[in-house]
From TrEMBL:
<dbReference type="InterPro" id="IPR003739">
    <property type="entry name" value="Lys_aminomutase/Glu_NH3_mut"/>
</dbReference>
<protein>
    <submittedName>
        <fullName>L-lysine 2,3-aminomutase</fullName>
    </submittedName>
</protein>
<dbReference type="GO" id="GO:0051539">
    <property type="term" value="F:4 iron, 4 sulfur cluster binding"/>
</dbReference>
<dbReference type="InterPro" id="IPR013785">
    <property type="entry name" value="Aldolase_TIM"/>
</dbReference>
<keyword id="KW-0411">Iron-sulfur</keyword>
<keyword id="KW-0004">4Fe-4S</keyword>
<dbReference type="InterPro" id="IPR058240">
    <property type="entry name" value="rSAM_sf"/>
</dbReference>
<keyword id="KW-0479">Metal-binding</keyword>
<keyword id="KW-0408">Iron</keyword>
Length: 463
């Protein structure tokens, strides 16, 4: 059985976690051979960042020079050919936060937590159980709940608006790997077919026809990839719907490409949107996605402060809990103190990594997430203590302690819900039945792993 990280060790004296302030630093990008001559002005340019994103092995070699052994590139090539669900796209800003305190070598690059989810390699994966038997490419069934192209009505009063299918960066664990990014040898991606203006008009028409929806999460992809004028028009359209009271902009680019959110046209345009939202009594917030404290730099903090200064009500973080990245008490608390105390970003949620293909090496079992939630309590201010949630298929977000039944041997937890999604209007049992979620199999006792092997063998025999 694979050892689950145990979090901060409990000392015999003192506290299990000792807080030490860590001020933010922009790592020296000139430590990478390919960026030795890059100026500060270039680095702070959103255009330069986008143009110089690393999209393939050849470009990674150009940045890294001779720092990495050939075995790493062979490992990466094997993953891209057989296992990766996302294509490679890493902005310089993100790559610069990998091994931030020294010039990387092969071993330190392999071990880096941000590398582990942004540039996954084949040996990261659990090749005995790369995917759970119940893993699916749209694990949360968001596409099934589309009420218009890109508009998911999953919760009674909330919708998710997917404006586009691209991001400034592609995370290996992306929950929308069936739609977002370029196709890979493993995944032939879905495509949005409508013109953006027609898609957006359909969203507004649905919202006007359904006054019970008050909250819109504007996402994708990443809203940082929507041309600003287009995004501003969409947001002003939302603000014209009197029943919309909350708008949340979802952008990992606040961390991965903070330069975007510091561009003058974006800052000025967001100020116009924020003023309009305030006048109409609408809560406007930005949600970002930071998974490790090393991702926080002065540029990220500057971008977050700028959002608040122009009138955004709050900037919040929704991270993902992942083994090898942040799944220890110390890592989570370090990140939360960096977010809340140094970057002005409110720790909000940590999601358990979703059951998508080839993600078993990242996922943690429910019991372990419950322990992490317990161990985080009492250190952070109450308002800045994040909830760890399990996003249960067909149910939605549930605090990890809300499980109704739990079979630890087989790693099956059962959950209930108190509302119908847009596809369950006529399901009389939707609110009374139990919904299953599954722990990663390699974390189970041997008897549980044997049981799953038998299930898989029996399934193959009857196929």
């Amino acid at each position: 059985m694979t050892q689950i990280p145990t979090g901060a060790a409990i000392p015999t004296t003192g506290q299990p976690y000792e807080y030490q302030r860590r001020t933010l630093v922009e790592p020296d990008w000139t430590r990478f051979p390919g960026w030795r001559d890059v100026t500060a002005a270039q680095w702070e340019s959103a255009q330069w960042q986008r143009v110089n994103c690393v999209k393939n092995i050849k470009q990674l070699r150009a940045v890294m020079g001779d720092l990495l052994d050939e075995r790493f590139y062979a490992d990466l090539e094997a993953d891209m050919a057989r296992l990766a669900t996302m294509s490679m796209l890493v902005p310089p800003q993100m790559l610069n936060t990998m091994v931030p305190d020294k010039t990387p070598d092969t071993e330190s690059f392999y071990a880096d937590p941000i590398r582990r989810y942004m540039i996954p390699v084949a040996t990261d994966r659990h090749l005995d159980w790369p995917s759970h038997p119940h893993a699916t490419r749209d694990s949360l069934h968001e596409h099934d709940m589309w009420v218009a192209e890109g508009l998911t009505h999953r919760y009674p009063t909330k919708v998710l608006a997917e404006l586009l299918s691209t991001c400034p960066q592609y995370c290996g664990h992306c929950t929308r790997m069936d739609l977002v990014g370029n196709s890979t040898p493993t995944v032939d991606k879905l495509k949005l077919t409508l013109k953006p203006v027609d898609r957006y008009d359909a969203h507004l028409a649905y919202l006007k026809a359904h006054p019970g929806v008050r909250d819109v999460v504007v996402s994708g992809g990443d809203v940082a990839n929507v041309p600003w004028k287009q995004l501003e028009n969409y947001l002003m359209g939302l603000l014209s719907v009197p029943t919309v009271r909350d708008i949340r902009l979802a952008t990992k680019a606040l961390m991965g490409l903070p330069q975007h959110w510091l561009q003058s046209d974006v800052v000025e345009g967001l100020h116009r949107v924020a003023i309009t939202a305030e006048r109409r009594g609408v809560n406007l917030a930005v949600h970002t996605h930071v998974n490790h404290v090393n991702s926080l730099t002065p540029l990220v903090a500057q971008a977050a402060r700028t959002l608040i200064e122009v009138g955004v009500r709050d900037v919040r973080n929704q991270g993902v809990l992942m083994r090898g990245v942040n799944a220890t008490t110390e890592d989570l608390l370090d990140l939360c103190f960096g977010l809340q105390g140094e970057a002005g970003i409110l720790p909000y949620y940590f999601y358990m990594c979703d059951m998508i293909p080839n993600a078993e090496h990242w996922r943690v079992p429910v019991w372990y997430a419950q322990q992490l939630q317990h161990d985080m309590m009492g250190y952070l201010p109450g308002y800045a203590t994040p909830r760890i949630v399990c996003d249960v298929p067909f149910v939605g977000k549930r605090w990890v302690h809300m499980v109704s039944e739990y079979d630890r041997e087989h790693g099956i937890s059962y959950w209930t819900k108190n509302y119908r999604t847009s596809i369950e209007a006529d399901d009389t049992e939707a609110l009374s039945k139990l919904y299953a979620y599954y722990d990663p199999i390699d974390t189970l006792p041997e008897s549980g792993q044997q049981w799953w092997r038998k299930q898989q063998e029996d399934g193959a025999a009857t196929a």
